[in-house]
C-alpha cells in the first residue's frame, strides 16, 4: 500500500531530451505535465492552472499510516504554510464552489463564471521564497527553483527524484536464503535513497538492510518489508506478508564452502597481492529461465527434475544463498536473465555491489552479469563487446582467411556469424583496499554451447582476448599506470570447452596454430539443433604439447597477449556441469601470470550430484556448480 502524501511537487529534467516533466499532487488533484525546456514560465503556469481546473479531486482512500520510531522526526515534513514575511500573494477566489466542477468550453475558453487565472495562484520560487519572473524559461526554473506555491500552500520542489510506488517480496521466505525484493518506482532508484525495515506481524523490526536472511528461529513467522524514501519523507510503502519456511539442507554445498574458507594459503610472492587481504572471485552459470520455460525444454534437458524446482521463485533464493555464503568481491554470472537481475540480484545485492547486465539478444533475454563489491573496488571503466559485430570488421578478415573460414559450410561473412550472440563484459577497477592502489581487469563471457562448434568458440575466444588487450591499454593510457607492474587480470566464464580443445590452448598461450584441428569443424558443422542424447561430448583429455611456429602465417596470435593460467590447473575439477546425459568441466577462472591463486573452492563428488539424478535439483538451483578462487 502506498501513501504519496497530501501535497507535493516533483520536477524531472532527463538528460538528452528537450522535455521536462512536472508532477503536482495538491488538494486531491494529481497533475502530470510534459513541457518543452524552452517554454516560458508563464506558459507553463497557464497549463498547470488549466490542468488543475480539469481534474476533480481523487476519491479518498483509507491508507494505513506506516510509522516507525526512526521516522517520527520526519512526520511533519510534507508541506507547510508560507512564512508570515513571504511575498507570495494569497489566492483570492471569486467563487470557491466552482473550483472543482468548472471545465473548459469546446473552444478552449473557460465557461461563464469561471476565471481560471483567478481560481489559482501559482508561483515558482527560489531558496529565499523569491518568485521567478514569468519570462524565465522552464529549463532555468528546473535547475534552480526550490519551492512552488499553489493558493498559498508552499510545497518543496523535489528535482529529479523518483517515487516509490510498490514493493513486493517472495511468496515465501526461505530459511538461510536472502528474501527477494521487487521495487516499482517511477524512475531509477538506488539503495542509498531508501530506508529498509523488515518487520514481523507484531511490528517488531527484524532487519534494517536490503539483505534479510531468515534464521532457524523464524520458521513459521510472517514478515514484510517497509520502505521509506530518504528525500521524499512522505513516500512510504510496504509489501504484503510472507511466511518463513524451511528449505532442504545442502550438506555438500556447506561442506565445500567451509573447506574453501579454511584452506591454507598458497605462498604468495607477487607484489600485486596482499598477504593480509584476499580478493575472492566467483563465477556461476545460474541457468536462465529461458531454457526451462516450456515442457519441451524441460523434457529435452532436465526430464529428471521436478518442474517446481525449476521455477524462478524457487531457484533464485537458492542462487542468492550460494552467493551470500561465498561472499565474493568479484562475481561473474552467466545465463542471467533480465527478471533475475531486476527482481532478485540488483535489489538484494545492490546495496553492497556495483553491477551491470549485458543481454545477448531480446529473444534469449539472458546474458552475462558482473558485480563488484563497492567497498573494495572502484569502477573506472566498463565495456560490453558483441562477438557477431566485431568478427565481421576488417581487423579480423585476415585471420579468417588464414584459418580457412571461406571453405566452411555456408560461409558468408555477412550472415555466417549473425546467429552467434556471445557477448564479452570487460571492466577496469581500482582496488581501494590495496596500499599501492593497483588496478584489476575483469572479463566475463559465455561461449557457444554446441559440441560441434569448436571453431566458433576459438574465434570467440580470440576476439575476447584481442578486445581485452585493447581495453587494457586504453585504460592504462587514460589513468596513467603500468600494465605489468600495476595491474592484474581475471577472466571468468562458461567456456563450454574441454582442456583438449583449441580454446583452452589459446587461453593458456595467447596463440594456436592456424591449422588447428578444431577449425575443421567449420567444414562439417551446420548449426543443427542440439539434442543432448544424440550429441554426447567426447571424454576429456589432456591438451597436446604445442610448438611455437616461427612463421606468423602459421599461427593465430593475440597481439600483446602472453596467455593466462587456469586457477584449477593443479587441482582439476571432475566436473562443473552435471546433467543426466553429460558431466564435465566447462567453467573456468583464468588469471594473468603476475598473480597467483591462494586457494580454490573444491568441486563436488559424482554421488552428490546424482542424489536427485542430476542438477538442478531440490537442493541446488543450477545445472552448473559455482567456482571460486582467492587471490
Automatic annotation (TrEMBL):
Compositionally biased intervals (Polar residues): 92-107
Molecular function, one GO term: 3'-5'-RNA exonuclease activity
Domain Endonuclease/exonuclease/phosphatase: 282-624
Alphabetized SUPFAM superfamilies for the sequence: DNase I-like
Top-level lineage group: Eukaryota
Record-level GO BP terms: nuclear-transcribed mRNA catabolic process, deadenylation-dependent decay
Gene Ontology CC annotations of this record: mitochondrion
Region Disordered, annotated ranges: 90-114
Transmembrane segments: none
Name under which the protein is recorded: Carbon catabolite repressor 4 like protein
Amino acid at each position: 500500500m502506498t501513501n504519496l502524501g497530501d501535497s507535493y511537487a516533483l520536477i524531472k529534467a532527463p538528460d538528452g531530451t528537450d522535455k521536462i516533466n512536472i508532477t503536482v499532487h495538491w488538494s486531491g488533484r494529481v497533475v502530470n505535465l510534459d513541457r518543452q525546456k524552452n517554454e516560458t514560465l508563464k506558459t507553463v503556469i497557464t497549463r498547470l492552472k488549466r490542468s488543475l481546473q480539469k481534474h476533480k479531486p481523487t476519491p479518498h482512500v483509507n491508507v494505513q499510516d506506516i510509522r516507525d520510531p526512526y521516522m517520527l522526526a520526519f512526520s511533519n515534513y510534507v508541506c507547510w504554510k508560507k512564512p508570515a514575511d513571504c511575498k507570495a500573494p494569497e489566492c483570492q477566489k471569486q467563487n470557491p464552489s466552482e473550483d472543482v466542477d468548472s471545465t473548459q468550453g469546446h473552444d478552449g475558453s473557460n465557461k461563464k463564471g469561471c476565471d481560471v487565472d483567478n481560481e489559482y495562484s501559482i508561483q515558482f520560487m527560489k531558496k529565499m521564497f523569491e518568485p521567478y519572473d514569468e519570462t524565465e524559461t522552464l529549463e532555468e526554473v528546473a535547475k534552480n527553483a526550490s519551492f512552488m506555491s499553489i493558493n498559498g500552500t508552499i510545497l518543496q520542489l523535489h528535482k529529479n527524484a523518483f517515487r516509490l510506488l510498490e514493493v513486493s517480496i517472495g511468496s515465501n521466505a526461505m530459511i538461510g536464503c536472502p528474501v527477494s525484493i521487487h521495487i516499482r518506482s517511477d524512475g531509477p532508484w538506488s539503495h542509498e535513497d531508501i530506508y529498509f525495515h523488515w518487520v514481523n506481524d507484531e511490528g517488531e523490526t527484524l532487519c534494517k538492510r536490503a539483505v534479510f536472511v531468515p534464521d532457524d528461529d523464524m520458521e513459521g513467522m510472517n514478515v514484510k518489508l517497509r520502505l521509506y524514501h530518504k528525500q521524499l519523507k512522505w513516500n512510504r510503502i510496504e509489501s504484503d506478508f510472507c511466511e518463513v519456511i524451511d528449505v532442504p539442507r545442502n550438506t555438500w554445498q556447506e561442506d565445500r564452502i567451509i573447506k574453501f574458507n579454511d584452506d591454507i594459503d598458497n605462498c604468495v610472492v607477487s607484489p600485486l597481492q596482499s598477504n593480509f587481504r584476499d580478493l575472492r572471485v566467483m563465477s556461476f552459470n545460474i541457468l536462465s529461465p529461458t531454457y526451462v520455460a516450456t515442457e519441451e525444454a524441460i523434457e529435452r534437458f532436465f526430464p529428471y527434475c521436478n518442474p517446481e524446482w525449476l521455477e524462478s521463485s524457487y531457484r533464485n533464493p537458492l542462487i542468492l544463498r550460494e552467493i551470500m555464503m561465498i561472499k565474493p568481491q568479484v562475481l561473474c554470472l552467466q545465463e542471467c536473465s533480465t527478471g533475475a537481475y531486476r527482481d532478485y540480484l540488483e535489489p538484494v545485492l545492490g546495496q553492497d555491489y556495483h553491477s551491470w547486465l549485458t543481454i545477448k539478444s531480446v529473444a534469449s533475454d539472458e546474458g552475462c552479469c558482473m558485480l563488484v563489491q563497492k567497498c573494495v573496488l572502484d569502477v573506472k571503466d566498463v565495456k560490453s563487446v558483441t562477438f557477431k559485430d566485431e568478427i565481421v570488421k576488417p581487423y579480423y578478415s585476415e585471420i579468417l582467411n588464414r584459418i580457412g573460414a571461406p571453405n566452411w559450410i555456408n560461409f558468408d561473412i555477412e550472415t555466417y556469424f549473425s546467429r552467434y550472440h556471445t557477448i564479452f563484459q570487460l571492466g577496469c577497477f581500482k582496488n581501494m583496499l590495496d596500499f599501492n592502489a593497483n588496478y584489476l581487469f575483469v572479463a566475463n563471457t559465455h561461449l557457444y554451447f554446441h559440441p560441434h562448434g569448436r571453431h566458433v568458440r576459438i574465434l570467440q575466444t580470440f576476439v575476447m582476448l584481442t578486445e581485452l588487450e585493447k581495453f587494457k591499454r586504453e585504460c592504462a593510457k587514460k589513468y596513467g599506470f603500468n600494465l605489468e607492474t600495476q595491474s592484474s587480470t581475471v577472466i571468468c566464464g562458461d567456456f563450454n570447452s574441454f582442456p583438449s580443445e583449441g580454446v583452452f590452448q589459446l587461453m593458456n598461450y595467447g596463440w594456436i596454430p592456424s591449422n588447428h584441428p578444431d577449425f575443421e569443424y567449420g567444414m562439417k558443422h551446420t548449426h543443427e539443433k542440439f539434442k543432448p542424447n544424440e550429441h554426447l561430448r567426447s571424454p576429456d583429455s589432456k591438451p597436446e604439447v604445442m610448438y611455437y611456429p616461427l612463421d606468423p602465417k602459421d599461427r593465430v596470435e593475440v597481439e600483446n597477449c602472453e596467455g593466462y593460467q587456469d586457477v584449477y590447473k593443479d587441482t582439476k575439477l571432475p566436473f562443473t556441469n552435471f546433467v543426466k546425459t553429460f558431466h564435465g568441466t566447462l567453467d573456468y577462472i583464468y588469471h594473468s601470470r603476475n598473480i597467483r591463486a591462494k586457494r580454490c573452492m573444491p568441486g563436488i563428488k559424482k554421488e552428490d550430484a546424482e542424489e536427485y539424478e542430476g542438477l538442478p535439483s531440490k537442493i541446488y538451483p543450477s545445472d552448473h556448480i559455482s567456482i571460486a578462487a582467492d587471490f
